[in-house]
Amino acid sequence: MAFDIEMIKGVYAQMKERVDAAKSVVGRPLTYSEKILYAHLFDGTASEAYKRGESYVDFAPDRVAMQDATAQMALLQFMQAGKPKTAVPSTVHCDHLIQAKVGAKIDLQDAINKSSEVFNFLESVSNKYGIGFWKPGAGIIHQVVLENYAFPGGMMIGTDSHTPNAGGLGMVAIGVGGADAVDVMAGMPWELKMPKLIGVKLTGKLSGWASPKDVILEVAGILTVKGGTGAIVEYFGEGAENLSATGKGTICNMGAEIGATTSIFAYDDASERYLRATDRSEIADMANELRDYLRSDNEVYENPEKYYDELITIDLDQLEPRLNGPFTPDLMTPVSKMKEIATKNEWPTTVEWGLIGSCTNSSYEDLSRAASIAQQAVDKGLTTKASFGINPGSEQVRFTADRDGILKPFQDLDAVIFTNACGPCIGQWDREGADKEEKNTIVHSFNRNFKKRADGNPNTYAFVTSPEMVAAIAIAGRLDFNPMTDYLTNDKGETFKLEPPVGEELPDLGFDVEDRGYEKPVEDGSKVEVIIKPDSERLQLLEGFQPWSGENIAGAKLLIKAYGKCTTDHISMAGPWLRFRGHLDNISNNTLTGAVNAFNQETNKVKNQLTGEYGAVPDVARAYKAAGVPSVVVGDENYGEGSSREHAAMQPRHLGAVAVLVRSFARIHETNLKKQGMLALTFTNKADYDKIQEDDTFNFIDLVDFAPNKPLTIELVHKDGSAEQITVNHTYNEAQIEWFKAGSALNLIKKQQA
Ligand code: F3S
C-alpha cells in the first residue's frame, strides 16, 4: 500500500465540521471545489468568507508529488530546512528524463546510464526524508498518482502543470513550482488566490467514436488557452456521471491547456469503482459515508448560474471526435470538418506518426479502446500507413494490458512500445530525421502541441486527439480521415469501415503487476546518506544564503537595467539549461542572459563598473561578487512573469545581487525573491526607472528600519558624483521581513527547527 490511509482518515474526520462551518460563514450553499478549499485552510476552520479572484488564502495541502526534472531543486532546497521528514506525504516520480527511441527496454537502460546520478540522488534523498520513490519505468507521475494517491475531497500540489489530472478522482490538485513544494513539505502555509469557478454542465452520454478527450478539446476550443486562468473548472451533470474515473482524469489533465488552476469532478459511482479496482476499498467506504460532502450542494446543481462565475453546457450526445492543432491545443476542428479546413490552411495531410500515451491518455481504458481499432486493422490484413508508438501510463497499466492481450494488436501492427514515461510528450523523442526540419504532420493523444514540443522540429504539425482516433488515423495515414464515414482498403482490394471503438473501463480480472517500481522510504532516514558526486555537473548541494548583516547596504552596483519584457525565461532560460536544474552554480551561468540591457538594447552585454568593460551578465555579476561588491537588478513592468521557477530568484541571489527594483512584479516571482532573502522592491514613482543610469551605485539608507507598509529610501550616486534619493515600495509583512533577515525563508525554518 503506497498511500497514507491515516492521513486520509484525518482529512475525512474533519471534513464535515469544516465544510459546515464554511457554509455558515459564507452564508450560501457551496460548490464541491469550495468545500475542499475551505476544508484545507491552514488555520483550520473558516472564520471569514474569501472573495473569489481576490483574496489570498493560506492552505494546507495533503500531499506533494514531484517529477524528476523539477524535484531536484525542490529537494535540494528542502534539505536546507533541517527537517528529518516531509510534513506531508510526498512522492518523486522518474518519468521526464527517459528518451523514447527504439523501445522500452533499451531506452530505459539508456536513460539510466545517462541520468543515473540524478536518479540516485532522488532515490537517496527520498529515502532519507520519508518520500515515496517511483523508479524510472514505473510510470508517468499523474497516472501513478491517480492509481495510488488521489482521493476524493483531498488537496494536493505537484511540481508539474498537469497535476490537475487527479481532479478525475475528485481532488483539488494544483501544479506549482518547486518553491511551493518546499513550503508544503516544510510544513509552511501554501498561499493561493481564491480561485474563480467555471461550471461545465455535461448532459447526455458519449457514444460511438466520441471520448472524454473530445470533451476537453471542445472546452479548449470554447475557452481558449487563457480562458481558465485563475479559475477551477468544475464538471457536473448526468453526463459527468456517465464517464469513467480515468476519462475524467483526461479532462482535468488538459484543463492546464486553458490555464485553469485546476479542474474537478465530484465523487460518484465511477470514482468508487476505480478506487476499489486500484485496491483502495477502504477509501471508497469512507467516501461513501461522506457522499454529500464530496459533491456540490443540491442548490448549486439546480441553479448553477447563481454559483459559478461562468457556465458552459456541453451535450455529450452531440459530441463528435475532434483534432486540435496545429501548434496550439485550442484550435479545434471536428473530424467531419477536417478535410475542408486542412485543405484551406494547407496543413500536410499525410500523417507520419501516431502516438498514444502521456499522462493525459494512457489508462487501461484508453489502451483497450485504441486496441479495438488496431485489432480491426489486423483482422482485415491492414498495416498502419503512419509509424505508430505507444507509451503506457504506468507499469501497472502496461502489465495488465499485456496480460489481457491489449498490447498484442499494436505489436501486430509493428507499433513501438516505449517506456512507461513521458517520452515524446516532453520532447524526449529521438525521432529519426527530425533534424532535417521537414514539414510533416503527426497526431497524438497528448495534451500540448506547441512548435518543437514533441520532436524539436518547428515544422512538425502536431494534432491532439483521442487514442482511438490516433489509432484510426495511424492506420489510414491521413489527417482528414473520418472513421465514421470513410472507408479503408486492404491489399486484397476489400473496402470496409472501422467499427466504433469498444473498451473496458477497468480490467475484468483486476489490475496486476509484478514490480510496480515503487520504493518505500525507510522508517528512520537519519543514517541515509544523500548521494551527490563532488564533481557532479548536474547536482550541487546548496549552501544557505548569508543572513542580512543588520546594517544598511551601501555601494551596490547596477548589474543590469532590463528593458521591457523580462520573464522567468529571460532570467533563467530553459532548453539546454534544463540539465543543470539541480546545480545552482552551473545554471547561474544563464542568469538574465535573455534580458535586454536598457542602455544598449542588447542581451547579455552589461557594463562592469569596476573595469569599465562590457561582459556577459553572469560574468559581471561574478566579478562583483568576487570583489565583495553587492549588485542590484532593475526591471520594468511585470518583471518575472511566466513560470513559478524558483531558479529565477535563486540565481541572482547566488551571484551576489541583493535587490531587484522594478516598476511592477509578477506576484509569484516577487514571493520567490522574498523567500530567497532578496529585496523585492518597486519604484514608488514609476518614472524613477528613468533615473537609473548605467554607472549607478545604490545606497540603502534606511534598511535598518525595514518594516511593513513603510517605503524604503535609496540614494543613487551617479557617475559624475551627483546623488539623488528615490523612494521604493515593498509588500513584505513581518514574517517575510524575518526571511530577509535570516537570509532566506529556509534559513529561518532551519533556525526555528534548531
Ligand atoms: Fe509527462 Fe507530458 Fe504529462 S511531459 S507529465 S506526459 S504532459
Automatic annotation (TrEMBL):
Query: Aconitase A/isopropylmalate dehydratase small subunit swivel domain spans which residues?
Result: 557-685
| Pfam families noted in UniProt | Aconitase (PF00330), Aconitase_C (PF00694)
- Aconitase/3-isopropylmalate dehydratase large subunit alpha/beta/alpha domain: which residues? 34-477
Swiss-Prot/TrEMBL cofactor(s): [4Fe-4S] cluster
Q: What GO MF terms are annotated?
A: 4 iron, 4 sulfur cluster binding; aconitate hydratase activity; metal ion binding
Q: Please indicate which superkingdom the organism of origin belongs to.
A: Bacteria
The similarity comment for this entry is:
Belongs to the aconitase/IPM isomerase family.
Q: What is this protein called?
A: Aconitate hydratase A
What organism, scientifically named, is this protein from? Moheibacter lacus
